[in-house]
Structure formats: C-alpha cells, structure tokens
C-alpha cells in the first residue's frame, strides 16, 4: 500500500468534503493554516488531507469571529461516509476513462491488422525499436539540425511495445495510457484537495476535452498531441505543491521532464510551474519554522533531485560526449538566433484570451484555424467574456477555500506562461501545435464549477450537493457514450496513410526480390518524407538492411545512414505534383505508384488553377480567397490520406545525390 493509499484509509469521515466558508481575516486564516499544517505533519494519523482540514478549520475560525457561516462539513450533504465517496470516485473515474478502454480494444481488434505508421509516427516507432539496441539520446526530430530535448517517451513506450510483440498500435496504446494517467491524476488531486465538487468538475472538463480533441487525437502518440492532457496534470501538481503536498514534488519532476523532453515548447510552459510549486513548498516549510515540516520535505526533495539526474542523463551524456554537435547545443542556437522571428505579447494574449470567448473552443469545436494555418485569435482578438465569469468564481474561491486560492494561483501562472510561450514561438504559430491552450480554460471550468458547488451547497444545504452530483453524473454518462462511440467509428488519416504504404510495398518488394546488399530509401529533398519514413520502417521490420542518404542523418539515427556498403538499390519516394518531374528524368524508373485521383481530374484542376491565377493577377480576388478556392485542394478530398498521389522510383545510376524535382 502506498503512502497515498494509507492517507485515504486514515482519513476521518468528517473531513470527506468539508463545507467551506469565508474567513473574517485572510491573513489570520493563512497563519492558522500554517500552524495547523505543521501539527498535521507532526501527526499524520490525525488526517490525510492537507487542505480539507484547513477549510474546516477556517470555517470554525470564521464562525468564532462572528461570520455567519456553517462551520463543520455536513457530510450527508456532501454525499455521506468516506467509503461512499471512494465508491463514487471510482465509478465516475471509470466512466470517464471508459472511452480510452474502448479505444484500446479498437486498436488491437480493428486497426492493428493493417496499420503501417508513416511520417513522424514512423520515426517514433523507429526510435522505440532502437531502445536497448542503439543509443537513444534525443527526442523526435523537429527541424533543421535539432530534435526535441529528450527520449523519455521512447523509454516509456519501449516496454509496452515489446510486451505486445512490437506491433505499431502498441505505441498508440502508450498514448492512451499517458492520457488516462493524466485524467486520473487530475481527478485524484482535485478530490484530495477539494472534495467531490472540484473532482466532478475536473472529470466533466476532461470528458469535454476528450470529446473536442477527438478519438484520433487521444490515441495519437505524436509529441504535439500526447503532451496536451499531461500539461493539465502539471497544473494540478503545481496546485498540490502550493497546498504543501510534498509527494507532488517528485511527481512534478517526472511530468515536467516528460513534457519538456517530448516537446520543446513545454520547457517554457512546464518548467516554471515546477519552479513555482517547489518555491511554494520551500516557503511553507520556512514559514512553519522548526518542526516536522522541514524533514518532511527532505525525502521528496532528494527523490526529486535523483529523478532529475536519472531522467536527464541521456541529454547530459549527449551534451558531454558530442559537445561539438550535440542536440541541446543545436536547439539552444536555434532559439537564440530565432531567424524566423517571434511573436508579440499581444499575439500571445489573443491566442490565450481567445479561448475564453463564446463559444469556448475547448468544450465545443475546433474553430480557431486561419487560412494561413495559424491560430486566428492572434489577429481577431475576440472579446473574452468568459474571463469575467472566471474572475467572479475566483473571488468566491479566494474567500471560501484556501485550496481554492492556490488553484487560482496555479491557473494564473499557467495563463501567463501561455501568453509568453506563444509570444516566443519562432515562425508561424500553427494552430495544430497550440492545442495545449485549451488546458487553462478547462482548469478555469474547474474553478467555476467548484465556486458554483460552494454557492449552491450554501443556498440548499440539504439537497444542493446531491442534485449537482446527479447532474455531473448524467453529463459524464452522456460524454462517455459519445466518446466511446467516436472511438469505435473514427476513421483516421494515419490509417489511410498506412494503407498507401501497404499498396506501395508489394511492388517494391517484388523489385527487390533476388537482390543482395543495402537498400537506400531517399525522399527527393523532403517531397516524399511523409511516406518514405514508413517504407524505411516496414523494410526494417522485415529484416532487410535499409538505410538512408547521409543528408537524412538528422531525422533518423546515425546507424541508419548509408556508409558505403554494397547496394541492392537506391529508391526515391515523392508525391503529388512532384511525380511528373521524376517521370521525365531518364535516370528514374517507376517502381510503384498510388493515386486517389484520375488523370481527367488532374487536368481539370490544372485548367481551374489557370483561371484562378488570372483572377488573382487581375485583382478580382484576394489572396485568402485564392487559397480557399484553390482547385488543387479538391484533389485531396477523394481519400483520407494526406496526399493524393505517391510514387517510388529506382535511381538507375545512383550516386546517393537525389536530383531536385
């Protein structure tokens, strides 16, 4: 049994979900909180919840000073005994996570037989395959000469991948596990620190988020997606640290490391949150004075330091051994130079505050992409009406619950960091990379839901909590049903791209039959990389000696770069409008081709494009209309695959320098 489980068992029934109230003097209440917290740490058997005794004590203190508040919790109004609370928590958590379990079944029953990863998904699996066989010191390749900071996701995924027979969908299963842990962690922290109200609000917010993000997103191991829900967990862990929960420090180190190593953007988002929580723990220990609080922080602190050293050791090793061309140095240089330019704080405000406009994107639908692919809120700056609701709810929590104040602090820090992170984005702030901006408004929903719980329970102490519980359960049942159905019915772009690779592989394998030596797969200066990476993976999975040209060393690993061994053949992958260029090259021989469009459709699109060009040149349409009405876009509508045509050519006289199409 863990310490947390022991805390659950020791928790007295009368502090299950205390009735919170206003303090007559906030400063005096905080001082009393600190004194009481020191006593609690000295006698952990007294209670297992750091904040719940505070809120109960604050209600008592306020009542002693003449404030007209309720005092101790009405446990019946909050739902009865602790055993009943645990049963409710397990039931609603299972209900929220049910769609993830359904998605896991779908992966292995429906998706697994024909799924072949492509693009970054193929690179992720190649990295996971390397664990235990080759050095894996960096994260997924990003751009130019650098990858994301560290390989933590690969090391987490490798055991699951091998356990399930190295099947590609095992990595998708890891994404489901990561997201499930994030949701469960947030719900656990909300219940531990606030009781039933914020716990239910957290689960409803999580279910809404999963509905809006979609089934494909939730099971996608891409580093842009698999970090979104864990970012929410990091905000909750910061809240826990501000509430003197020392166990949250090492947990925060693990989550921060996962976020920062998996996607570099979270270095600026997650690391300061960890720092704020750590400072909160240290300040609390100092304010408490000599006593049990300081030694209590020692073991979690040492564990946190040890975890930092362990989890960042691959990055440190890379910087130490490859110091002239290490990934960290290249990454730092890229961000220091920022050649593509950065954005302004006004842009950051537009993106973050835009999530508080009506309707709220995170709870409804993805509406924020401009025709440039960036987040349109940078330019439109919609009125964030829901911020006013958040401010009112924050006032209620600030007056009613010490734990609520600290959640508000963690949320304000996260919102501020979000503005700064967008402002420091180099180059276009693409919408698909900014789904994490939905997390702060989801946390704000918890703040508003908790405040509403307090007000309703005060107004109707006999039935308010029961009715709000019933409403939350009904919402969770509806959302779980929707999310489970979409988990079964969603047809993904990744699967369609895998079908393209499956169509291209047989002719390629036939062409290689009877040949001996190394197979080199190139991608025509990036035009075919989306599918060439999947082909490299599938040839390697079949035990073939497959490598890539030296210019491709950054996306792949050094051991996959061609070093001059005897060749079985050199092949080039390209797509769409680049195919005719290679068709005309006498040094290229077509080996395999897939297309979702007919020649007649291509010719019609070319004629329509000429007409549209003429209208643009004559000033009859603007550039946005030109992009939106481009006939080339219609060519992609015949199939869910990312591109409408893909081809593989053999280089007849290879010198490993692929001609530019």
- Work out the helicity level: 55-70%
Helix count equals 27
Strand count, sense and barrel status of the largest sheet are: 5 strands, mixed
The pLDDT mean sits at 86
C-alpha termini separation: 62 Å
How many runs of DSSP E, i.e. beta strands?
7
Strand content: 5-15%
Strand order of the largest sheet: 4-3-5-7-6
State the domain count. Answer: 3
Structural class computed from helices and strand pairing: mainly alpha
Shape: globular
Low-confidence stretches: 1-31, 34-80
Radius of gyration: 28 Å
Describe the structure.
By secondary structure, this protein is mainly alpha-helical. The protein contains 27 helices and 7 strands. The N terminus is likely disordered. Helix 6 crosses helix 7. The strands form 2 sheets. The chain has a 5-stranded mixed beta sheet. It is globular. Helix content is 60%, strand content 5%.
Could you name the key traits of this structure?
globular, 5% strand, five-stranded mixed β-sheet, 27 helices, 7 strands, 661 residues, single chain
